[in-house]
Amino acid sequence: MPKALVVSDEVDERLWTDAVRAVSVDLVIGAGDLPYDYLAFLAGALDVPCVFVPGNHDPDLSGYTRYGGLSMKDGFPTVWPGPAGGVNADGRVVDVAGLRFAGLGGSIRYNDGPNQWTQRQQARRARGLVRRAKWRRRRDGRDVDILLTHSPPLDLGDRADPPHRGFACLHRTIDALRPKWLLHGHIHPHGEPVPDRVVGGTRIRNVVGHRIMEFS
User: Any idea where the Calcineurin-like phosphoesterase domain is (predicted)?
Assistant: First the structure.
């Protein structure tokens, strides 16, 4: 039963110290809008893998390819700005620590910043993700365990202001993939309790801040 340190949006300074080594987990999961140095520190200090999606305040990671320890962009070696050793699940289906993730990072487009998408753009990305997940399932019979996003589905834990509206396409993505979990950030609770939401067999959880979670 893998156990994860799940983080998003808000740095906990208590974790950014050697004290975090007392936490016993199998992986770090990042749902966006955190310094990549923070994710790299957590994974390094705990000596576990890290899987993440970028948020709307994170650097643009598109266009990078990685071969072994070498990062390339536009055909030239370059420094990857993401967390050292981290697995970027945005638009991908990846297996980490015994769990299968499908990832969709970013938020609704509200200015010219990185990792922002219109409803139509994110829907196109989501359809591609579903195709990749179904291909993987035909290949090995495994389903997606966790749909990892930065933004929530529309009307399921989002907010009415334009930057914090959720994505409508995530409803169809849940229906197609039927993951056990959808983990998202982006919506800061500001101290208010945030109950999980359940759609079919999928539990939707806002993970802003940090949580320790076990996954069967």
Answer: 16-189
